[in-house]
């Protein structure tokens, strides 16, 4: 990938930087248990395979989709309970980034790149991950879309591209087909990562695909 003129690198969070399995499934299980207990009912707890397919959706889509149709109106309660459980685990140091994330972000920062994080997660979740995994120090731009249906990743990437001086000045790194599509809809290039939650073939349209985070430096010609 030609990185001439590149100024900024933007990253998705879950499945790209943060291994959300390290906290999320236990938190989702606990959140569902509390959810059914608060309603005074017995109900299903989704398997990880179902949860994994939903990861990447904004909160206002993720939680209704995780619930039985008969209970979707209560998704905000589930969101709060799962979020509380996630933040406890992150505060206890149970969150994990994928291998090579910190080293790669350090290397990009030292080379003068502006680093951005764009996620469909909620603000409280993003803050908990950034602080629990010592990621906040790396990023100049942060955007969370989990509670804002009026905007999507395409809108934000377009705004960032304009702010950095053009579509060739920023690249987006993500693990799902939706990340690649958002980048291209915004007119910017995309790098896909294979260690996240995407299925085989989801990353076919990316300008580059990497199997390890440090490989991003090679792709950018560093």
Question: How do you describe this structure in short?
Answer:
By secondary structure, this protein is α/β, with parallel strands linked by helices.
Explained architecture:
With 222 residues, the chain is α/β, with parallel strands linked by helices. The protein folds into two domains: 136 residues, HAD superfamily/HAD-like (Rossmann fold, 3-Layer(aba) Sandwich), CATH 3.40.50.1000; 71 residues. A six-stranded parallel beta sheet has the order 3-2-1-4-5-6, with helices on both faces. The longest helix has 17 residues. The relative contact order is 0.19. The mean pLDDT is 94.
List the keywords.
222 residues; alpha/beta; Rossmann fold; 2 domains; 6-stranded parallel sheet; 9 helices; elongated
Helix content estimate? 40-55%
Low-pLDDT stretches = none
Most strands sheet: 6 strands, parallel
Query: How many H/I helices?
Result: 9
The CATH homologous superfamily name of the largest domain equals: HAD superfamily/HAD-like
Q: What number is the mean pLDDT?
A: 94
Side by side, the strands of the main sheet go: 3-2-1-4-5-6
- At CATH's second level, what is the architecture of the largest domain? 3-Layer(aba) Sandwich
> What is the multimeric organization of the chains shown?
single chain
Rg estimate, integer Å? 18 Å
Instruction: Return the domain count.
Output: 2
The sequence of SSEs as H and E is EHHHHHEHEHEHEEH
